[in-house]
Amino acid sequence: MASFATRVQQLPTLGLGISTEYGASASPDALDILALRAAHATYAGFLEVGVEVVKGLDGIAQHWVHEGWPTTYHFLDVNLDEIEDFDAPWLQAVAEIARRMQPAWMCGDAGLWHFGRRERGHMLLLPPILSTEAARAQAEGVVRMRDTFGYEVLPENPPGHVFLGDLHILDFYARVADLADTGLLLDCAHLAIYQRLMGHEPLTGLDGLPLDRVVELHVAGSTPREHEGFTYWEDDHTPDILAETWAIFDWLAPRLPNLKAVVFECERNPLHTVLAGFKRLATTLEDSLLPYAIGR
Amino acid sequence: MSATALQRVVVRMMYDLAFRQRVYANPERALCEVPLTPQERQWLVTPAPSAYGADAYRSSRALTGLLEEFPVAGALVVRLPRGTHRLQQFFTTPAFHQCVQERGSMAAAFGSYLGSAMFRSRKTSPEMTHIATLETGIAQVRRASPALLSTASITAETTLGLAPWVALLTVHPDTLERYSALLASLQQCGGSLIEAVLDTQHRLPHGPAFRGKATEFVLASYLPGSDSPSLERLNDDLGKLLAIAKTPRLPTDLSILVEEMGCEPQEAQEVIAGLVDDRILHPCL
User: Fold this and answer.
1) Residue B119: per-residue pLDDT
2) Is the pLDDT of residue A100 over 50?
3) Which one, A11, A16, A75, B163, has least CB within 10 Å?
């Protein structure tokens, strides 16, 4: 197989896009992604579809796919580091959904999506243990998934309330990327959550990140919360993007030579509340290496 | 392996406050059964303890998922004194912790909990245990994968066992009717099933006393291609045959057992072939 440096040149540039998951469009005040695409096509250049195979694609995602518009496949139901999770029914279901979607690539939080087996009530999302051993296991999962489905698989840094291990999260994913020879999806909001929780400045560790590995960025709003004296930011995808998240995005966007896609995760908010965020993203991207994909 | 074990301890600490407190108080003692390094144990107690409980609804969400699969047993527990609290206590049980640490099924562990001595006393009806057995069987067959469907032809050397999508259950003879009546009552409550389960104002119908120690066989099945699981009462001979077939056997051995129940050899072979055709017995590869 060709190296990532070669393979990444074959990936399409998707520009600015939006995310969804099963049923999100049906929630109260949900973003009307078709209206967004009709009114601001460059804000909705592609749809990142969050997939649990047990649910499949909802009506909006099916419509998008039917139109032949670009997609990425964001998995919500596999623990990359557990070989038992790659069971035959799941592999078969993923292959079938991917066949219908024809995504540009696959991606998803490389953490713990469920404890134990893939069963009702087991779902959660926790970050991995930030150790060399865990990075190796995640990398093996990335390779396994890429080899199985034939798509690039971009691991994403998850959010969390508890991060354990002796590696900074950026060093952890740099190791995963190196071991799997893969690209990365960096979620700026998740990174801001991590940095604050660990007492770091927003940009701590970015100088050690292999910038040429970052193919996709996520940006989303977060809400400060408190629980029994523990303060944290909830990754709730509001339109209100924290300054720390912007700081990370603004630093990264002009420095990523292989950036192909940016998602504003705001799927459960009405259109008028998210336009300012899209505009801000598009403006920043005009100075990035991705400008032609956002209509400049 | 150590990172995996550590990750699972994190999950346990998120669901169980008492366990979390024991880990913080004495990590070595609380985690003596988990192969972790001293450094990993130290990592566990480095964050603020309340960080593990920041998602206050984590166990409620899991419990909701469980009650959707155990609506009748769940409704009976909710209507016991401190019933909801007793349901939440599941997350403190060894069954739950073992399920997480050993990559098990939470539904199976929850079924064991509902059928445990925790819900057996002179003041509670024995129906609880039997209904928990039924719903545990349904949960089990729901998890059988059609991918396990073998297309191999059956020969005299093929061992046959119970198909993964069937579960042979032994319950009190009053159980099936009682279960149906309670489920129908919950379904007719209005609103969602889970709302009915949790609505203590919704009175469940009275039922039989489940007297005596008599039992009967019930088959829970969820055949590939069917819409939903089903429950079927079995006659005693068939139940005994399937109980034996829980351990895979050669067709001839099973036929002999049927003959011992009074069938002619040809008839016995047809019985076994019929059970294979009905996908109750299945080749074990």
Assistant:
1) 84
2) yes
3) A11
Residue B270 domain flag: no
Would you give the distance in Å from CA B250 to the centre of its chain?
A: 28
Confidence of residue A120 (pLDDT cuts 50, 70, 90): confident
Asked whether residue B76 falls in the same domain as residue B29, the answer is no
Reply yes or no on whether the pLDDT at B219 is more than 70.
yes
Q: Buried b / exposed e across B126-145, counting CB within 10 Å, b at 16+?
A: bbbbbbbbbbbbbbbbbbbe
For residues B35 and B48, membership in a common domain is answered with yes
**How many structural domains does chain B have?**
2
Q: Does the CB of B141 have a partner CB in chain A at under 8 Å?
A: no
In angstroms, the separation between the Cα of residue A79 and the nearest Cα of chain B is: 11
pLDDT at B150: 58
pLDDT at A158: 98
Q: In chain A, which residues have their Cβ closer than 8 Å to the Cβ of B52?
A: 161-162
Chain A hits for B9, CB-CB cut-off 8 Å, are none
Q: Does residue B278 belong to any structural domain of this protein?
A: no
B108 and B2 housed in the same domain? no
Tally of CA atoms within 13 A in the half-sphere of B124 that contains its CB: 21
Segments forming the whole domain that contains residue B50: 1-55
Q: Does one domain contain both B68 and B199?
A: yes
Q: Do A119 and B46 touch (CB under 8 A)?
A: no
- ipTM of predicted complex: 0.94
Identify which of B133, B125, B76 has the alpha carbon closest to the alpha carbon of residue B108.
Answer: B133
Distance from the A43 Cα atom to the nearest Cα atom in chain B, whole angstroms: 32
Residue B257, in any domain of the structure: no
Q: What is the pTM of this model?
A: 0.92
Count A/B contacts: CB-CB distance under 8 Å: 105
Instruction: Write the single-letter amino acid at B6.
Output: L
Q: How many Å lie between the alpha carbon of A145 and the closest alpha carbon of chain B?
A: 19
Same domain membership, residue B9 and residue B135: no
- DSSP 3-state of A33: helix
**Residues A162, B47: C-beta atoms closer than 8 Å:** yes
Nearest CA in chain A to B61: A121
Shared domain check, B109 and B5: no
- Hey, are the CB atoms on B145 and A88 less than 8 Å from each other? yes
